[in-house]
Request: fold
Amino acid sequence: MIDRDLYQAIPIHGRRITLCGSTRFREHFDFWNTHLTLAGNAVYSVAVDAHGEAREALPTEKEKVLLDEVHLLKIKNSDAIFVLDVNGYIGSSTSREIEFARSRGKDVYYLSKLFPGMAKRSA
Reply:
């Protein structure tokens, strides 16, 4: 569903943004990818849901390492990251991504700070 009032209220425009957060909140990745894109941003998201129950096969450890490296490359190519801290959750991988982004001078936006109500409910 597209929430036109929401995407028009997003204060981030014309940026390259990488979504960061736990893939257990995959619906949030999809929702915010759509809305940040409609706000005029180029959005990088996750390619594989490592927590998906419907998947036939989860990524191997080697694949997880590769996916983590590729995600860091997306952050390198971004102006900013958008942290999907749903219900305040920030895991160890997301914490590393935040520090990686900060160490490279990237802007870090948090769902819970920009849209607190959206961080406490499902997308």
About this structure: The first strand starts at residue 16 and ends at 20. Residues 4-119 form a domain with the Rossmann fold fold (CATH 3.40.50.10400).
